[in-house]
Amino acid sequence: MPPKVFVTRVIPEVGLKKIQEHCEMDLWTDPLPPPRDELLRRVEDCQGLLSLLTDTVDAELMDRAPKLVVVSNFAVGFNNIDVAAATQRGIAVGNTPGVLTDATADMAVTLLLAAARRLVEGHHYTLSGKWKTWEPLGHIGQDLVGRTLGIVGMGRIGFATARRLHRGWDMQVLYYDIHRNEHAERELGARQVDFDTLLAESDFVSIHTNLDDSTRGLFDAEAFRKMKPTAVLVNTARGPIVVQEDLRQALEQGEIFAAGLDVTDPEPIDPNDPLLKLPNVIVAPHIASATVRSRNRMAEIAAENLLAGLEGRPLPAWVNPEVEPQWRKRFS
Ligand code: GLV
User: Fold this and answer.
1) What is the 3-state secondary structure (H, E, C) of the chain?
2) Can you tell me the distance from the alpha carbon of 167 to that of 171, in angstroms, rounded to the nearest whole number?
3) Is 263's C-beta closer than 6 angstroms to any atom of ligand 1?
4) CA 39 to ligand 1 center in whole angstroms
5) Which of 9, 81, 104, 319 to probe ligand 1 with, by most ligand atoms within 8 A of CB?
6) Each residue's pLDDT tens digit, 172-188
7) pLDDT in tens, 75-108
8) Ligand 1: does its nearest atom lie under 6 Å from the Cβ of 289?
9) Closest to 287 measured CA to CA, from 103, 121, 115
10) pLDDT-above-70 percentage for the chain
11) Which of 55, 61, 134, 308 could tie 313 with a disulfide, CB 3.0–4.6 Å?
12) Are the folds of 4-99+292-331 and 101-283 the same?
């Protein structure tokens, strides 16, 4: 009998086909995520789950699904999954690293340029008919060349963002990370600094760290007070790394110049949230990985992780390889 899996949303065909060939697939076809009770119900007799970042995969869900041996997340981030609980229960967890690095770095640079040069504000100005003439003193934004970039989290995406801005705009690169990144130091002349130094010296700050207990709320009122009033903040990582209400106040009071966000807290942000009324913030609906190649590769890797996990093979992108001994016992 083929293993039973629940796939919580329609992902690119290349992934679905692979899964269908080997599994009995229950596919959630609504554009919105399955409601919690539906997710719990559908996963009950499944061996595999292909989840999205909008699905909470916690101990309660795992206990409702005693046959579950693998959770494959269609994302590089996995803060929606209680990985410790999965490991405890002998469940392998996979993600999709690497294949969305360029797309996400491109989005970080896009948001940085657009926020620094007030692009969306200018677009609205044009649409509203306020554009009457060329204005020598109007629409003044921030210069980019030779400025200082602060990267929070110098992993794959942080590095790709820094490389673009160092090579293209001659930016000097500072980074804050618990790990040293010698490659970034060698290739980009990046300098590892403490968080306060990064805040104080950077003209642009771009967030690329995981969301966990050590990064939740990292950017709060105190952090914004330490930043330059000309600074631009970019977040393409996870919304809760920034205390959104504190960001709103910092933008309103001119403690920082502008922000470009691909992620919010919560998601989606309430369209009436006062943050969205500010002229100096740009908010994209969590689309950094939304390119043809990235999404297709994510689907392939997510399918490969799922199938490997079901067949007792090492996952190509394994979040919790330490689970292996316990997970193997599930097949005996
Ligand atoms: C998207 O946010 C991802 O983690 O892949």
Assistant:
1) CCCEEEECCCCCHHHHHHHHHHCEEEECCCCCCCCHHHHHHHHCCCCEEEECCCCCECHHHHHHCCCCCEEEECCCCCCCECHHHHHHCCCEEECCCCCCHHHHHHHHHHHHHHHHCCHHHHHHHHHCCCCCCCCCCCCCCCCCCCCEEEEECCCHHHHHHHHHHHHHHCCEEEEECCCCCHHHHHHHCCEECCHHHHHHHCCEEEECCCCCCCCCCCECHHHHHHCCCCCEEEECCCHHHECHHHHHHHHHCCCCCEEEECCCCCCCCCCCCHHHHCCCEEECCCCCCCCHHHHHHHHHHHHHHHHHHHHCCCCCCECCHHHHHHHHHCCC
2) 8
3) no
4) 20
5) 104
6) 999 999 999 999 999 99
7) 999 999 999 999 999 999 999 999 999 999 999 9
8) yes
9) 103
10) 100
11) 308
12) yes
CA distance 70 to 92: 5
pLDDT at position 332: 83
Query: Hey, what are 88's tokens?
Result: 């405890």
Residue 128 has pLDDT above 90, yes or no: yes
**Cβ–ligand 1 contact at 77 (below 6 Å):** yes
Task: Specify the fold of 4-99+292-331.
Answer: Rossmann fold (3.40.50)
CA–CA separation, 169 vs 65, rounded Å?
51
The domain limits of the chain are 4-99+292-331, 101-283
The neighbouring-strand residues paired with 50 are: 7, 72
CATH for the stretch 101-283: 3.40.50.720
Output the six-digit token pair for 145: 């060349």
Span 249-302, pLDDT tens digits: 999 999 999 999 999 999 999 999 999 999 999 999 999 999 999 999 999 999
CB-CB contact of 276 with 251 (8 Å): no
